[in-house]
Amino acid sequence: APRDAVAELVVLLSSEDPGVRKRAARWLRGAGYLLLPWESILRFALDDPEACVRVEAARVLLERAAPRELLESAAVEGIAHDECAYDAGILLLEVSPVSARAISAMAAAAARARSQGQVEFLWEGNLAACGAVAVQALKPFLLHSNMHVREGAVETLGRIGAEAVGAAEDLARMLSDPSEEVRLAAIGALG
Fold first, then answer.
1. Which of 67, 84, 120, 167 is the most exposed place for a label (fewest CB within 10 A)?
2. Side-chain half-sphere exposure of 78, counting CA atoms within 13 A
């Protein structure tokens, strides 16, 4: 009976184990045919102390046309956590791809990323898709101490293309960066 399922879901979303809560929130995506009794449960999951549980709940609510501001907060917070940064990045692109808050969160997450794959996803996939709106958010990362972060920012500005005209002088300065990879990326971005 749906009432028993709702009661069990409340128990799972209240578990002490964040993995159980995350799986319960993810499971909700497949329960759309029972949407009405579940909406309050999803809102309950958005208040979860674990960012990845909130990201999963927000992904379900996105499919149900929930208010974007509510979902953006879950995504911005989730992008700071390695274990759900990818899902949060996708959510953020769907919810508010060109908001200053979203762009800043993606850029900051890319600067903290531990793997080249995460950097490429955040910089080159998400931020490049934001176009001219991302240019100002990317400029500070051209001065970052990590050469991979500088390289990612340069490559992303290059992918933005003509819309990144406001960063042309900054990119020209990158031609004298101490890193050969960054200089090569600057040549590509300016070319």
1. 67
2. 31
Please give the model's pTM, rounded to 2 decimal places: 0.60
Say which amino acid occupies 182. Answer: V
Q: Are the C-beta atoms of residues 2 and 33 closer than 8 Å to each other?
A: no
Please give the biggest Cα pair distance in the chain.
Answer: 68
Q: How far is CA 2 from the centre of its chain?
A: 34
124 near 155, Cβ under 8 Å?
Answer: yes
**Own/partner pairs, 23-29, CB within 8 angstroms, 24+ separation:** 25/53, 25/56, 25/57, 25/60, 26/56, 26/59, 28/56, 28/57, 28/60, 29/59, 29/60, 29/63
**What is the pLDDT at residue 6?**
65
* SS3 labels along the chain: CHHHHHHHHHHHHCCCCHHHHHHHHHHHHHHHHHHHHHHHHHHHHHCCCCHHHHHHHHHHHHHCCCCHHHHHHHHHHHCCCHHHHHHHHHHHHHHCCCCHHHHHHHHHHHHHCCCHHHHHHHHHHHHHHCHHHHHHHHHHHHHCCCHHHHHHHHHHHHHHHHHHHHHHHHHHHHHHCCCHHHHHHHHHHHC
Q: Is 179 left (phi over 0), alpha (psi -120 to 50) or beta?
A: beta
